Amino acid sequence: MSPLMQPIEQIASTDILSCTPETLIHEAASLMVQSGCGSIVVFAAPGQAVGIWTETDALAVDLEDAAARCRPISQVMSQPVVTLAHHLSVHDVLGQFRSKGIRHALVEKEGAIVGLVSLSDVVLCQGTEAFLGLKRLDGILAPPAVILQADDNLSAALSSMREQQLTAVGVQFADGSYGILTQRDVVGMVAAGQGDVELGSICTRPVIGVASSSSLLQARRVILQHQIRHLAVFDAEHKLVHIIGFREIIQSIEHEFLLELHGALRERDEALLQSRQSLLLADKVFEATMEGIVITDGNGFIQSVNPAFSRITGYAREEAIGKTPALLKSGKQSPEFYEYLWRCLRHDGFWQGEVVNRRKNGLLYTEHLSITAIRDELGECLHYVAVFSDITQRKQAEERLHFLANHDALTGLPNRTLFIEKLQSAVEQARQFDRRFALLFIDLDRFKMVNDTLGHHAGDELLMRIASELQRIVPNLSTVSRLSGDEFTVLLENVVTVQQVASRAQSILDAISAESTVAGQGVFISASIGISMFPEDGAMADALLVNADTAMYRAKERGKNNFQFYTADMNARAIERLKMEYSLHRALAQDELDVWYQPKVELASGRIIGAEALLRWHHPDMGLISPGQFIPIAEESSLITSMGDWVLDTTCAAIRRWRDAGLLQGRIAVNVSGRQLKYSSIVDSVAQALERHGLPSSALELEITESVAMDEDSGMVEVLHRLQALGIYLSIDDFGTGYSSLSYLKRLPVRGLKIDQSFIMDLHQDRDDAAITQAIISIARSLGLELVAEGVELEEQRRFLLEQGCDCGQGYLFSRPVPAAEFEALLRQQPR
Q: What is the mean pLDDT of residues 93-102?
């Protein structure tokens, strides 16, 4: 929209300077000077404007007459005040200003005064640069400047301004320089009571001006920069030729606007003719096109559809009009899909893509859809136009072709082509996120014999059974593929340990070797599996595949029905770990596990005040196995939960026995793993064990490692609070070796800390260890926590700990971990 066509409401000033009819002239002039306004509106009552007094009116005040300044404003104001409707265009307002000979008017809306518009507001409104930049000052119709001398009196200047209706006069000094006297200056003199003086003493000097070759745009910028209302125009000899104000700038804008308007009307007539022809063509295209077209209003209600819409969807025009396109919704797209679609329409005004919709008869179809928003000049959406085509058959054909090209026709598994793509993708993902994965290459043993004896149909049946078993066994997000014949691959992504892979490979061997009935015959078949690991056995997809194949042939050479890792030492470790896992399963069932106890003693007296329960495993062939070897295996294989429950129950039974014999009054501590806290019902297990053996909760202590206790995101804190609610004494084991957070420690429901033995062992000769131990003791005492020092082996260590305030310890100085019977003997040796 042209700036001269916008309504005056948009440029009018809402801050109206006003006074009452009784206000004195000099008071009104002072208000105008203080606010920098060129006019003041006189209101008899709120909303009732009775007159206006402007800078031009100030010229009529006789500055020599002191009484003239003290007359009420009602005697000299212009009346009535011109009031214009708020919707009039700036162009129309300019016409009113010119015909009525005014520079100010009030703006009225719905019977109320909402603003004041002036000639200044029109010039300052945005969008006039295009006009002003084309017009030079020497090309406008401006009267010559009226120039008075510096020794002329003020009265002569006021007389000239009144008679010639001037808003400003120039003042020339003897040295050839110029000053300027404006109507606003006169208002200030009225306010101050200025008498008749020489112009040189009161004019503004030097006068701000520009060359006559400057554009109106440059002139306006100088006016705005210096916050002035009049600008001197100098010729080439630097003589003052014009004094221009907003009036001259407005006249130039109006002239350029009229030229633009005539051109716009001509273009409009030409466009209307072209539009009629285009509409006729568009109507024919709308009816005849093979694509469905839907036109809605800005709120999404259907206003029009074409015949192709009815042919594709089954809905007649009358059934669709007034509805929304939601009548086609199939439910196959998520709410997030439609949120994104509408976000694109609102932001970009356009969206296209594929949508699954439902025909009137209930059948689904796929369409390629384009939606465009039609907006008005203000950016408001008037309509949405949707154009769509039915691509159901094409999509089905594409999907079928894609499936056949990438999948095995017999089993439906990914074929070699798709497998290579997935393997390459796995390499890239693992490299990016620093992960490991395993590739299992599976070849069936003696499969040819099944084909040769029972026929290819039986062989196919067996292959489908094995494919189904592989998909059942492998974890989610793993990929099972059939490369060719009796060769399969399994891609295990994001693995942590080799033992995970070995366990999964053994499960696959067990499933394949189970008896199968094929073509009515019972058959036994086995497999050989080769395994390569990323990144250990290859950094590229082809290297991993070749190495897994090599490992598979090694499995064949070693008797079949087994798996082999490509790396020899990895293979040996995996097999050893797998054997230990099987043995550990058996250990729990065959009473190979035992609970030993290491006393906790009072450092000052050596009296036993409790103990720590420690799990031991007596393997029938390998003897006593270190917990450091089998506890991690129990954690990874989920055996730790059942083993933990067994240790808890065994310990509670021993506590009951010793309490009944009057041997023990303190607590026995049981270690709890992170997996028990995270994945088992540890709270229920503890409560049931205490109830089963008739023990108070004060008889039991649970030790949690520091790293587990500090794991905020795993829900540990909630479990610890539930254990605390049972009355269980909770302590943190190995304190100081993990990522200690004192602020978090303060929030944990723990009552004790165990100082790790790594700090105790050298504290008598290592200043750092001694300092750390002192700090831990200080922290515990500050937080009100009890302390136990583990690994106390020397008398010097005991004395140091006692001196620093640690009262309890355990270690070889007092006793090694011992079986239950030996611990009971130690209890009996103590004075009761």
A: 80
Q: Both tokens of residue 254?
A: 């109006």
The whole-number average pLDDT for the span 759-773 is: 88
> What is the pLDDT, as a whole number, of residue 126?
44
Is 565 strand, coil or helix? strand
Cross-strand bridge partners of residue 609: none
Return the pLDDT at 513: 86
The number of angstroms, rounded, from the C-alpha of 659 to the middle of its chain's C-alpha atoms is: 59
Distance CA 444, CA 464 (A): 13
- 207 and 73, same structural domain? no
Cis peptide before 3 (omega within 30 of 0): no
In SS3 terms, 602-614 reads as ECCCCCEEEEEEE
Sheet order of strands, 231-234 included: 209-211, 231-234, 240-244
Mean pLDDT of the region 722-749 = 79
Q: What is the mean pLDDT of residues 591-616?
A: 94
CB 355 within 8 A of CB 366: yes
Q: Write the CATH number for 63.
A: 3.10.580.10
Mean pLDDT of 128-137: 65
CA 766 – CA 730 distance, rounded (Å) = 30
Residue of higher predicted confidence among 192 and 600 = 600
pTM score: 0.43
Q: What is the 3-state secondary structure (H, E, C) of 733-755?
A: EEECCCCCCHHHHHHCCCCEEEE
Other Cβ atoms closer than 10 A to 406:
15
- 243-271 pLDDT, tens digit per residue, is 887 667 766 665 565 555 556 557 766 76
CB 197 within 8 A of CB 154: yes
Amino acid at 206: P
CA 465 to chain centre: 46
Q: Which residues pair with 168 in a beta bridge?
A: 182
Structure token digits, residue 748: 């944990």
**Positive or negative, the Cα torsion across 352, 358, 359, 360?**
negative
How much is the average pLDDT of 445-473? 88
CB-CB neighbours of 644 under 10 Å: 22
Q: What is the mean pLDDT of the chain?
A: 86
Read off the amino acid at residue 62: D
The verdict on 540 and 663 lying in the same domain is: no
DSSP state of 526: E
Whether the CB-CB separation of 76 and 19 falls below 8 Å is answered with no
Mean pLDDT of the 33-56 span: 88
How far apart (Å, rounded) are the C-alpha atoms in residues 128 and 118?
A: 16
Which domain range does residue 74 map to? 3-123
Residue 675 pLDDT grade (very low, low, confident, very high; cuts 50, 70, 90): confident
Distance CA 381, CA 321 (A): 19
Q: In what order do the strands lie in the sheet with 178-182?
A: 147-149, 168-172, 178-182
Same domain, 658 and 806: yes
Q: What confidence tens digit (pLDDT) does each residue in 6-29 have?
A: 888 888 888 889 999 999 998 999
Residue 193 domain-assigned (yes or no): yes
Residues 642/650, Cβ–Cβ less than 8 Å = no
Omega before residue 535 within 30° of 0, cis: yes
Query: Phi and psi dihedrals of 678, rounded to 5?
Result: -85, -40
For residue 138, being part of any structural domain is answered with: yes
**Are both 218 and 94 inside the same structural domain?**
no
Which of residues 273 and 172 earns the better pLDDT score?
Answer: 172
Residue type, 691: E
Do the beta carbons of residue 114 and residue 9 sit within 8 Å?
Answer: yes
**Cα separation, 632 vs 734, whole angstroms:** 17
For the chain, the maximum distance between any two Cα atoms, rounded to a whole number of angstroms, is 135
Cβ atoms within 10 Å of 635's Cβ, excluding its own = 16
Helix orientation angle between 416-433 and 392-406, rounded to the nearest 10 degrees: 80
Task: Quote the pLDDT of residue 532.
Answer: 94
d(CA 755, CA 654): 26
